[in-house]
Amino acid sequence: MQEGRDGFSSRFGVIAAAAGSAIGLGNIWRFPYVLGENGGGAFFLVYMAFILMLGVPLMLTEMSIGRAGQRNPYGTFRLLAPKTKWYLVGVMGVAVAFLILSFYSAVAGWTLQYLYDAVTNSFEGKSSSELSGMFDSFTSSAYAPSMWTLVFLVMTGSVVVAGIEKGIEKYTKVLMPLLFVIIIILDIRAVTLDGAGAGLKFLFQPDFSKLDSKAVLEALGQAFFSLSLGMGTIITYGSYIGKKENLISSATSVSLADTAIAVLAGVAIFPAVFAFGIQPDSGPGLVFITLPNVFQQMPGGYYFSVLFFFLLVIAALTSSISLLEVVVSYFTEELKISRAKATVISFISVGIFGVLCSLSSGPLKDVKIFDKTVFGLFNYVSSNVLLPAAGFLIVLFAGWKWARKSVSDEVLGEGKAETPLFKMFMFIIKFIAPFAIALVFMNAVGILKL
Ligand code: PHE
Predict the structure, then answer these.
(1) List of domains in the chain
(2) Rounded to two decimals, what is the model's pTM?
(3) Is the distance from the beta carbon of residue 383 to the nearest atom of ligand 1 less than 6 Å?
(4) CA–CA separation, 37 vs 25, rounded Å?
């Protein structure tokens, strides 16, 4: 460990922090709406396959690279592959973190507004269409969404200035399990609604005629986004993991927790979507329109709505912290500026783009680049182009460039003999993962037609 670098105090601390990064708006906001736009069950199956086949191995790879490097992703690649261009993967990660953080804080801003609405009991007595109108009129206004975006960024910045150990660990440990419990309660209410069956069918019954090459790419992008892969977050967190920790079990637990939350969120949302006559392909507003309907149908709905949006803000915060951490650790370690200064610089630059994203449903909705709003473009390009591209390069690095011995030292422990599981892992990252990612990508852009 480099001098002056914080570490995590306990094994549960690292897992909690990595799970805190993974679990966030990606599971509860993005997963359901992207699934809804891409036809449901078939998307779900492909998504699960990508998590297992590519997500878990890539998570393990990133943790290993991070722990071997003991620094930010850029510096790590410089250290592990000196005098090569691999460090560009690290640079790419910093850039992607910027993009994601921008639209992520815009959506987190919506969540803050919804927390406020929940506290002030603003959902009460509203019909499904009124709730949908409420979302539209809020997101299309200029002032409130931008203000909440900046509030959220200030929250993120304050935790990051405080440093890793104190900043991240203590919140995640208690609050993520609580989020889990609340979602299960929502699930119980959702599946017992009249007409819930159609939603479960939509989610779990695959209809492959609805799956096109674009949906497959979206499933891949969503898997990487949800697990925080392909941009240096897990590499950065890996650098804080103690040498004695077992990375296989850490990578598996984090992926499992993340996927469980996404599935449980789907089970809370789709039955309600169908029960309340909401369109499953309503887009980014889906969760915000659907869940307030559910809260109204439960005893104590007021308290559940407040608690839910509070926890969603926290989940978003533990993810945005991990994004900002990538940028800040790069600035502090490579450009040698103070943590406080790095945070302020990041806050200002991300703040500008975040506000542009938050205005994308309102005043800037007609500003289109490649037929997408700023928000839409950042959201699409980061998940469906940049994360898979970086994920591809990272498995390529670990599979082909990094010495096999170094990989096994990290994954299994120094000097340990290769196990069958490890051999399988190497096979995946050498052959299957790069090939699969390239294929999905080429198929979606039309270079290749499967
Ligand atoms: N995985 C986070 C979520 O699901 C988002 C994220 C993506 C965080 C990439 C870090 C890096 O909300």
Answers:
(1) 11-445 (1.10.4160.10)
(2) 0.94
(3) no
(4) 17
